[in-house]
Amino acid sequence: MKPINVGLLGIGTVGGGAFTVLARNAEEITRRAGRPIRITVVADKNMELANKVTQGACRVTDDAFSVVNDPEIDIVIELIGGYGVAKELVLKAIANGKHVVTANKALLATHGNEIFKAAQDKGVMVAFEAAVAGGIPIIKAVREGLSANRIEWIAGIINGTTNFILSEMRDKGLSFDAVLKEAQRLGYAEADPTFDIEGVDAAHKITILSALAFGTPMQFDKAYIEGIARLDASDIKYAEQLGYRIKLLGITRRTPDGVELRVHPTLIPAKRLIANVEGAMNAVLVQGDAVGATLYYGKGAGAEPTASAVIADLVDVTRMHTADPENRVPHLAFQPDQLADLPILPMDEVQTCYYLRLRVQDEPGVLADITRVLADEKISIDAMIQKEPGEGEYEADLVLLTHLTREKRTNAAIARLEKLLVVKGKVTRIRMEGLGK
C-alpha cells in the first residue's frame, strides 16, 4: 500500500524524538497503521541540526511554507510552537487539504476553535495527543475511552517544572528561588520560566481537557490562573503537618451554574495517589459518573515520551485517512453541531475549602477576633495550628483550614482580617481540594 508522506515542521527536542522513534519502530508502526509512515521532508531554520538528525534520510529545508504547500505531503506535524507562524502554517496546511498533528497546546487553547472549524470544513483531521501531558494518552482517554461517561471533573498535575519545584521544596525545605535555580541548572525549567511557574502552561492544557470533557469550545481567556512563585516553604511544611501536599493543579468541574476552569496551588490530602506524584512527572485524575475516578500517570515532557504521542496521532490519522469525515472521532469529542455553550464560572463563585495562614500578635483575644470575622462571612473552621512564638518574639503563625465556602466570602473575610490590628501583614490563602467523589 502507498506510504503516507509526512512533513515535519521543527526538529528540536520533540521533533528529533519523533524522527528517531518513527525510524526505530518503523516495522511495528507499519503493522499497526496498515501502511508505511515516512517523514519525507523536514523544515527547520537550523539546517545544520536538521541534517545531523536526519542523516540524509529525507529532504531538509528552511522553508516551512514549502512543506505545507507540497502536494506530495499527506500529513503535517507542527512542532514549532507559539501562536504566530505556527498558526499560519497549520491553517495553510488545512486549506491545502492536509491532516495536521501538533503538540502546540498554546495554539489550540487560544485558536483551537478557528482551527477545528477550518479542519471540519475541509474534511481533514487535527490530532493533538502530545499537547497535554506528554506521553500520557489522556486526550484519547477523555475523548474516546470515557465516552460512555458524563465526566464530572478533571484535576491534573500537568506541568512537570512546577511539580519538580514543589517536590524539592517539600523534600529539602528550600525556598522557591533556590529550587528554581536548581531546576534551571538541571534543564527542568527554561531560562525564562514564566509560562511554567505562573501557571499559563497548565492553563493551556486544562482548557483543552475541559473542552473535551464537557463538549464546549476552547475558552482559555476565561480561565483563572495563579502560579507558584509566591509560595512560601513554611506553607509546604504546615500543609505536611496537617496531612496535605501542595501541588499546582489544573482543575475543571461541571457545576449547575457553569464550568470551573482554574489553575492554582492546591492542598491535596496526602493519602490521595495524585498527591504522591513527585519530580517532573505528570498525573491526571478524571471522575466519570459510570467509571468513577481514573488516574493517568507518566512523563509529561521529554523527547521520546512526547514523540510517543505524536506518532500515535500519526497512526490514528493514517488509519482514518480515507474514511468518510462524518464518521471520524470529533476533534472535541462531541459532534461539532452539539457543542454546548456552557458559561465559565467566575472565580468569585467557585466553592472550595481554604488554607489560611495569618501572622498574629501573641495576646489574649486574638483567636476570638479572627473567628468572629469568619463567622460573619459564614465560614466554618475545620482544623487549626497555632505555632508558639520564639523566645523574645511577640508574633506567631496561625494556620486555619476551612470547610467548603464560596470564594467571594473568603475574599471578603481576608480583606477584613488584614484590617485587624492583631493581624500583621497579608493573609496567605491556598485553596484545598479533597478530590474524592
For this entry, give a set of tags.
single chain, 437 residues, alpha/beta, Rossmann fold, Dihydrodipicolinate Reductase, domain 2, Alpha-Beta Plaits, 11-stranded mixed sheet, 6-stranded parallel sheet, 15 helices, elongated
Structure explained in plain terms:
Helices cover 37% and strands 26% of the residues. By secondary structure, it is α/β, with parallel strands linked by helices. The chain has three domains: 4-135 and 303-338, NAD(P)-binding Rossmann-like Domain (Rossmann fold, 3-Layer(aba) Sandwich); 138-298, Dihydrodipicolinate Reductase, domain 2 (2-Layer Sandwich); 347-432, Alpha-Beta Plaits, CATH 3.30.70.260. Strands 7, 8, 9, 10, 11, 12, 13, 14, 15, 16 and 17 form an eleven-stranded mixed beta sheet that branches. A six-stranded parallel beta sheet has the order 3-2-1-4-5-6, with helices on both faces. The termini are far apart.
Mean pLDDT: 95
Total individual domains: 3
| Number of strand elements | 17
Uncertain segments: none
By DSSP (H or I, 4+ residues per run), the number of helices equals 15
